[in-house]
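One example copied in:
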Amino acid sequence: MKVTVIGRKTEVPRGFRETVERKLLKYEKFFKDDAEATVVISQKGNFDNLELTITSVGIFFHSEQSDETYQNALDKALNAIERQIRKNKTRLAKRLREGAFLKGNAPDIVPVEDFEEETEFAVRTKSFKFKPMSCEEAIMQMNLLEHDFYVFSNDESGEVNVVYRKKDGTYGCIIPE
């Protein structure tokens, strides 16, 4: 697994990268060598904030945690990722062909993140190429990322659609006319 550790407006503590790599070793059984893990650390108030994103075969697993130390935040994020994998294991197996998590199956989705600072507002911009998918697949991906909405290309119409989570826990899909 390729591991990237980034410090946003803070320095990465000595030895922290090695700790992250060592703790991510147990996820090799899920993803093998094709996975990429990105850890972004920052300060939010008096707490250390850690964002962990693991990408493999176009599937994103994401967790953001804050704690008194980066180590504790990392442990919480790893537990959250493991829960996501276990919770969605059956759904993922249905959608992916056999051996999808094995080495050599490169993802079609290559995320590219650009972070821009403006004078008035800090704007975080993400851009990425995406493969066509069904609404159901987009809802699963949204839940894996722990987001409230997800933009995707509909595999039936080829148009850009948005799925979102309503306050009552149900889902909606925005389709352009």
